[in-house]
Amino acid sequence: MKIGIITQARATSTRLPAKVLLTAGGRTYLEHHLDHLQATGLPVIVATTTNEADEQIVEIAAKAGVPVFRGSELDVLSRFAGAIREHELEGVVRVTSDCPLIDPEVVVAGVDRFRAEAAENLYVSNCLERTYPRGMDYEVFSGPRLLKADAEATLPADREHVTSYLHQNRTGDMRLVNMPWTESGSQYRLTLDTEDDRLLLATLIEDFGAAELNVHDLVAIMDKHPELHALNEHIEQKKLGE
Predict the structure, then answer these.
(1) Which superkingdom is the protein from (predicted)?
(2) Cβ neighbourhood burial of 109 (10 Å; 0-12, 13-18, 19+)
(3) DSSP β-ladder status, 122-125 and 139-142
(4) CATH of 3-187 among 3.90.550.10, 1.10.10.10, 3.30.420.10, 3.30.1490.20
(5) Which of 13, 93, 94 is nearest to 57 (CA)?
(6) How far apart are CA 241 and CA 194, in angstroms?
(7) CA 8 vs CA 193, 221, 239: distances in Å
(8) What is the pTM of this model?
(9) Hey, where are the domains in the chain?
């Protein structure tokens, strides 16, 4: 089964404009993100927009040897569908580029669970119930099933958020599997959405070598340094449809 990772990226983010193009430790957050994805050993595809503002994203991906699919800014579901068709993916891992420290081993565990059964109606994720820190999120699902969602989904939220047609079980036959973490890290934000998130991630990367660490190491640092958690613990995550 051909399984590939599709990560969505754009420069026109609203809370923190061009966030993935900002830098920490001499590299853009997008470069950190792609480093971690490539460490899974799976094919990686960047799904970005046709906007001129995203030319730098295309350049960074090309430098990393990662192919790019360009499509609609707002209809992200159609963008993913185009990438699936172009690369003939039977299985898909969806991640987002605001996760620069995503742990490759965490992603691979989800892929292994999906491969074990590889049913078209199977959806595997580690964030159906929050146990990992934000910034470690992934979803694994059938390529044909997302193409079906692209053909059938009409709700704007489903077009924007890509997988809600699947995990909200619009078809009534999806089987959802959560991959929980046995440790505790759900209180932490290791994602890039605001300036306070950026400050935390930059501190972790530049002062603690976080770009080389796994989720266990990162949570241990956060546990030991409550002042780091204080940098962004007040941030509220956007909800589906916002």
Answers:
(1) Bacteria
(2) middle
(3) antiparallel
(4) 3.90.550.10
(5) 13
(6) 18
(7) 14, 28, 18
(8) 0.96
(9) 3-187
Name the phi and psi angles at 50, rounded to 5: -85, 5
Q: What CA–CA distance (Å, rounded) separates 115 from 111? A: 6
Q: 3-class DSSP state for residue 139?
A: strand
Collapsed DSSP state (helix, strand, coil) of residue 156? helix
Share of the chain above pLDDT 90, in %: 95
What six digits make up the tokens of 46? 């960047």
Longest dimension (CA), the chain: 48
Structure tokens at 27: 């590299």
Say if residues 163 and 117 touch (Cβ distance below 8 Å): no
> pLDDT tens across 149-162, in order?
999 999 999 999 99
